[in-house]
Amino acid sequence: GGAAAAAEAEAARQRLHLRVPTQRRKVCSFWAKGECKRGAACAFLHASADAATASAPPACPPPVSSLGDPSLPKLVGRGMVSLGHREASPVQAQVWPVALAGLDLLCRAPTGSGKTLAYLLPAFAHAAAQSRPTRPGEGPRALVLVPTRELAVQTLSVARSLQRVSGGLRAAAVYGGGPREEQVSELEGSSLALLVATCGRLLDMLEAQVARS
Protein backbone atom coordinates (compact mmCIF):
# COMPACT_ATOMS: atom_id res chain seq x y z
CA GLY A 1 0.00 0.00 0.00
CA GLY A 2 1.42 3.23 1.28
CA ALA A 3 5.02 1.99 1.56
CA ALA A 4 5.03 0.68 -2.01
CA ALA A 5 3.57 3.92 -3.35
CA ALA A 6 6.16 5.94 -1.44
CA ALA A 7 8.96 3.75 -2.80
CA GLU A 8 7.70 4.17 -6.37
CA ALA A 9 7.42 7.95 -5.91
CA GLU A 10 11.01 8.08 -4.63
CA ALA A 11 12.20 5.95 -7.56
CA ALA A 12 10.45 8.29 -9.99
CA ARG A 13 12.04 11.28 -8.28
CA GLN A 14 15.48 9.71 -8.60
CA ARG A 15 14.93 9.00 -12.30
CA LEU A 16 13.90 12.61 -12.87
CA HIS A 17 16.86 13.83 -10.84
CA LEU A 18 19.23 12.18 -13.30
CA ARG A 19 17.80 14.28 -16.11
CA VAL A 20 18.42 17.68 -14.59
CA PRO A 21 21.73 19.44 -13.96
CA THR A 22 23.26 18.58 -10.61
CA GLN A 23 26.21 20.98 -10.82
CA ARG A 24 26.82 24.39 -12.30
CA ARG A 25 30.13 25.30 -13.80
CA LYS A 26 31.91 28.07 -11.93
CA VAL A 27 33.54 30.38 -14.44
CA CYS A 28 37.17 31.19 -13.64
CA SER A 29 37.09 34.98 -13.30
CA PHE A 30 40.84 35.17 -13.88
CA TRP A 31 40.51 33.16 -17.11
CA ALA A 32 37.65 35.39 -18.25
CA LYS A 33 39.86 38.46 -17.76
CA GLY A 34 42.82 36.86 -19.51
CA GLU A 35 44.82 36.77 -16.27
CA CYS A 36 44.72 33.04 -15.50
CA LYS A 37 48.27 31.63 -15.30
CA ARG A 38 47.24 27.99 -15.01
CA GLY A 39 46.74 27.53 -18.74
CA ALA A 40 45.51 24.06 -19.62
CA ALA A 41 45.43 23.18 -15.92
CA CYS A 42 42.60 25.67 -15.32
CA ALA A 43 39.68 23.70 -13.96
CA PHE A 44 37.27 25.94 -15.88
CA LEU A 45 38.53 24.64 -19.20
CA HIS A 46 37.90 21.06 -18.12
CA ALA A 47 34.64 21.51 -16.23
CA SER A 48 31.68 19.51 -17.48
CA ALA A 49 28.93 21.53 -19.13
CA ASP A 50 25.97 22.69 -17.05
CA ALA A 51 23.52 20.38 -18.77
CA ALA A 52 25.73 17.29 -18.98
CA THR A 53 24.49 14.51 -16.72
CA ALA A 54 25.16 10.82 -16.38
CA SER A 55 22.01 9.97 -18.32
CA ALA A 56 21.92 12.74 -20.91
CA PRO A 57 24.48 12.10 -23.66
CA PRO A 58 25.96 13.50 -25.76
CA ALA A 59 28.17 15.49 -23.43
CA CYS A 60 28.48 19.19 -24.17
CA PRO A 61 31.83 20.17 -25.69
CA PRO A 62 34.20 22.18 -23.48
CA PRO A 63 34.43 25.98 -23.81
CA VAL A 64 36.94 27.50 -26.20
CA SER A 65 40.02 29.15 -24.75
CA SER A 66 40.68 31.74 -27.47
CA LEU A 67 39.47 33.07 -30.82
CA GLY A 68 42.17 30.96 -32.43
CA ASP A 69 40.84 27.73 -30.96
CA PRO A 70 41.11 25.05 -33.68
CA SER A 71 37.54 23.93 -33.02
CA LEU A 72 36.16 27.31 -34.15
CA PRO A 73 35.39 28.10 -37.80
CA LYS A 74 37.62 30.92 -39.02
CA LEU A 75 34.51 33.01 -39.67
CA VAL A 76 33.90 33.26 -35.92
CA GLY A 77 37.33 34.70 -35.18
CA ARG A 78 37.20 37.05 -38.17
CA GLY A 79 33.78 38.29 -37.15
CA MET A 80 34.91 39.08 -33.63
CA VAL A 81 38.06 40.87 -34.77
CA SER A 82 36.12 42.88 -37.38
CA LEU A 83 33.95 44.25 -34.57
CA GLY A 84 36.93 45.12 -32.38
CA HIS A 85 36.88 42.12 -30.04
CA ARG A 86 40.13 40.34 -29.23
CA GLU A 87 38.79 37.60 -27.01
CA ALA A 88 35.59 35.71 -26.34
CA SER A 89 33.42 36.65 -23.39
CA PRO A 90 32.62 33.83 -20.94
CA VAL A 91 29.16 33.30 -22.44
CA GLN A 92 30.56 33.18 -25.98
CA ALA A 93 33.30 30.73 -24.97
CA GLN A 94 30.68 28.34 -23.64
CA VAL A 95 27.90 28.84 -26.21
CA TRP A 96 29.91 28.60 -29.46
CA PRO A 97 31.05 24.96 -29.12
CA VAL A 98 27.56 23.84 -28.08
CA ALA A 99 25.79 25.71 -30.89
CA LEU A 100 28.33 24.61 -33.50
CA ALA A 101 27.83 21.00 -32.40
CA GLY A 102 24.12 21.34 -33.23
CA LEU A 103 23.00 20.81 -29.64
CA ASP A 104 20.03 22.49 -27.96
CA LEU A 105 20.98 25.25 -25.58
CA LEU A 106 19.34 27.48 -23.00
CA CYS A 107 21.47 30.43 -21.95
CA ARG A 108 20.90 33.26 -19.50
CA ALA A 109 23.37 36.13 -19.19
CA PRO A 110 23.18 39.85 -18.36
CA THR A 111 22.94 42.66 -20.90
CA GLY A 112 26.30 43.44 -22.47
CA SER A 113 27.73 39.95 -21.96
CA GLY A 114 27.96 39.14 -25.68
CA LYS A 115 24.88 36.96 -26.17
CA THR A 116 24.03 38.35 -29.62
CA LEU A 117 27.36 37.35 -31.15
CA ALA A 118 27.20 34.11 -29.19
CA TYR A 119 24.34 32.93 -31.40
CA LEU A 120 24.78 35.00 -34.58
CA LEU A 121 28.31 33.85 -35.36
CA PRO A 122 27.49 30.11 -35.21
CA ALA A 123 24.42 30.81 -37.36
CA PHE A 124 26.52 32.51 -40.03
CA ALA A 125 29.16 29.77 -39.80
CA HIS A 126 26.42 27.19 -40.39
CA ALA A 127 25.08 29.10 -43.39
CA ALA A 128 28.56 29.58 -44.85
CA ALA A 129 29.27 25.85 -44.60
CA GLN A 130 26.35 24.87 -46.84
CA SER A 131 27.12 23.49 -50.28
CA ARG A 132 25.10 26.19 -52.04
CA PRO A 133 23.38 29.48 -51.17
CA THR A 134 19.64 29.61 -50.68
CA ARG A 135 17.58 30.25 -53.80
CA PRO A 136 14.72 32.74 -54.18
CA GLY A 137 11.65 31.31 -52.53
CA GLU A 138 13.57 29.12 -50.11
CA GLY A 139 13.57 29.78 -46.39
CA PRO A 140 16.62 31.18 -44.58
CA ARG A 141 19.36 28.98 -43.14
CA ALA A 142 18.79 30.35 -39.65
CA LEU A 143 15.88 31.99 -37.82
CA VAL A 144 16.26 34.29 -34.82
CA LEU A 145 13.02 34.99 -32.92
CA VAL A 146 12.97 38.10 -30.74
CA PRO A 147 10.18 39.57 -28.58
CA THR A 148 10.24 43.22 -29.67
CA ARG A 149 10.72 45.43 -32.72
CA GLU A 150 13.58 47.25 -31.01
CA LEU A 151 15.47 44.03 -30.43
CA ALA A 152 14.83 42.92 -34.02
CA VAL A 153 16.35 46.15 -35.36
CA GLN A 154 19.31 45.87 -33.00
CA THR A 155 19.97 42.23 -33.89
CA LEU A 156 19.72 42.92 -37.62
CA SER A 157 22.25 45.73 -37.26
CA VAL A 158 24.77 43.35 -35.68
CA ALA A 159 24.03 40.67 -38.28
CA ARG A 160 24.62 43.06 -41.17
CA SER A 161 27.91 44.18 -39.65
CA LEU A 162 29.07 40.58 -40.14
CA GLN A 163 28.11 40.51 -43.82
CA ARG A 164 31.60 41.28 -45.14
CA VAL A 165 33.44 38.63 -43.12
CA SER A 166 30.77 36.03 -43.91
CA GLY A 167 31.31 36.24 -47.65
CA GLY A 168 28.30 38.44 -48.30
CA LEU A 169 25.71 36.27 -46.55
CA ARG A 170 22.52 38.29 -46.32
CA ALA A 171 20.36 38.96 -43.28
CA ALA A 172 16.86 40.45 -43.11
CA ALA A 173 14.28 41.24 -40.45
CA VAL A 174 10.49 41.22 -40.24
CA TYR A 175 8.71 42.93 -37.37
CA GLY A 176 5.51 44.73 -36.59
CA GLY A 177 5.46 48.48 -37.02
CA GLY A 178 7.90 48.31 -39.92
CA PRO A 179 7.22 48.71 -43.66
CA ARG A 180 5.59 45.40 -44.59
CA GLU A 181 6.11 45.68 -48.36
CA GLU A 182 9.80 46.42 -47.89
CA GLN A 183 10.14 43.44 -45.55
CA VAL A 184 8.40 41.15 -48.07
CA SER A 185 10.81 42.34 -50.75
CA GLU A 186 13.75 41.49 -48.48
CA LEU A 187 12.38 37.99 -47.94
CA GLU A 188 11.95 37.35 -51.64
CA GLY A 189 15.50 38.35 -52.50
CA SER A 190 18.17 35.76 -53.24
CA SER A 191 20.48 33.98 -50.80
CA LEU A 192 18.87 34.87 -47.48
CA ALA A 193 21.07 33.31 -44.81
CA LEU A 194 19.48 34.63 -41.62
CA LEU A 195 16.07 36.02 -40.72
CA VAL A 196 15.38 38.00 -37.55
CA ALA A 197 11.68 38.11 -36.72
CA THR A 198 9.12 38.99 -34.10
CA CYS A 199 6.56 36.25 -33.64
CA GLY A 200 3.51 38.28 -34.66
CA ARG A 201 4.89 39.53 -37.97
CA LEU A 202 6.39 36.13 -38.82
CA LEU A 203 3.05 34.38 -38.25
CA ASP A 204 1.35 37.05 -40.35
CA MET A 205 3.71 36.41 -43.26
CA LEU A 206 3.49 32.63 -42.93
CA GLU A 207 -0.29 32.82 -43.07
CA ALA A 208 0.00 35.03 -46.14
CA GLN A 209 2.44 32.46 -47.59
CA VAL A 210 5.17 35.05 -47.91
CA ALA A 211 7.72 33.45 -45.57
CA ARG A 212 8.71 29.81 -45.87
CA SER A 213 10.00 27.62 -43.08
- The count of β-strands is 3
C-alpha geometry: globular
| Adjacency order of strands in the biggest sheet | 1-3-2
Secondary-structure-based class equals mainly alpha
Main sheet, how many strands, which sense, barrel? 3 strands, parallel
Rounded mean pLDDT score: 77
N-to-C CA distance: 52 Å
The value of Rg in angstroms is: 21 Å
Compute the number of helices: 9
Q: What is the number of independent domains?
A: 2
Provide the β-strand percentage band: 5-15%
SSE succession: HHHHHHEHEHEH
Spans of at least 5 consecutive residues whose pLDDT stays below 50 are 13-33, 45-56
Query: How much helix is in the residues?
Result: 40-55%
Walk me through what this model shows.
It comes from Emiliania huxleyi. The protein has 213 residues and is mainly α. It has two domains: 21-114, no CATH class; 142-207, no CATH class. 42% of the residues lie in helices and 8% in strands. It has helices at 2-17, 29-32, 43-46, 74-82, 90-100, 115-128, 149-161, 180-188, 199-207; strands spanning 142-146, 170-174, 192-198. The protein has a three-stranded parallel β-sheet with strand order 1-3-2, with helices on both faces. The termini are far apart. 28% of the residues are buried.
